[in-house]
Amino acid sequence: MTEVIRAPKRIRRNVRSRQCRNLQVGFVPTMGAFHEGHRRLIRESVTDNDVTVVSLFVNPTQFDSDQEAESYPQDRERDLAIAREESVDVLFVPESDSIYPPGDCTRVEVDLPLTDRYEGAFRQRFFEGMVRVVTKLLNLVPAQRLYMGEKDLQQLVVVRQLIQDLHFPHRLVPVPVARDRKGVAYSSRNRRFAERDWQVAGRVCELLQELREVLQQQGDTDQLSSYRAEVQHTGMELDYLDLVSYPEFEPTDARDEKAVLILAGRIGDVRLKDNLPVHHASVREIESAIV
Ligand code: AMP
Predict the structure, then answer these.
(1) Is the CA virtual torsion 9, 139, 87, 35 positive or negative?
(2) 221 pLDDT higher than 90
(3) Across the chain, which distance is largest between two alpha carbons, in Å?
(4) Which residue minimizes the CA distance to atom 5 of ligand 1?
(5) What is the sign of the dihedral through the CA atoms of 116, 122, 124 and 126?
């Protein structure tokens, strides 16, 4: 049975009372419009824990405009059906004004160099708003484990720092990118793709995969600029295509064991974001190799 909770006070009480009974709680924060990627996170949590809490909140403060926030895909009925199907124990669906009540003015800043780069450079309010809401959610859901997708890799690094610095109890579990048959990473925003956009997205993913193989063989980054041009040629308006070291997000070369290809851009009015570790199948694998 999936219990739906709307009030912040109730969610914390609910989690605490389960922990008092020695139950392990896993937490999956989301903005809804569930797809296979969300299911992957939920399944990991259900496997690892006694109780899984999923939050569904379209966070207004992380978008660059009200219009962008309002047009974010939403499908509450379907989300609830999926939560039930996946054996989610608690679905936390707060109202915006219970998360941001009138007078709310506390800001939390993660001052890493990477918050100004890549996503930080192209989405002005993203990290500030994301950190603000994640701080509130982690405080309301003090679970033992927190599940986040590797698809949003920069976000994952920032949240890891936040957990460490603010002494949150959560252990962050990165979940590898879930992709469709053409290799396109599932995303709530992809629902807006027209038929032609799917073809462009498929081609971009092929190019990313191809570039990964080139980098594995050649070890230098000479080919990056020609692949940038090829990606733009598909019709994608490219924000960045770079090779960085995980988790620092500093430019690197392909001999680096921790090298990850990162890419983002617009296809029509939909933003596509992706990444591919060069020498490992996932970031989780990089983490276990370097520890
Ligand atoms: P969102 O609802 O888009 O904010 O995503 C909620 C969580 O799901 C985040 O931790 C995302 O990184 C993760 N996620 C979204 N898409 C995917 C995907 N295709 N594969 C793995 N995780 C994903």
Answers:
(1) positive
(2) no
(3) 58
(4) 30
(5) negative
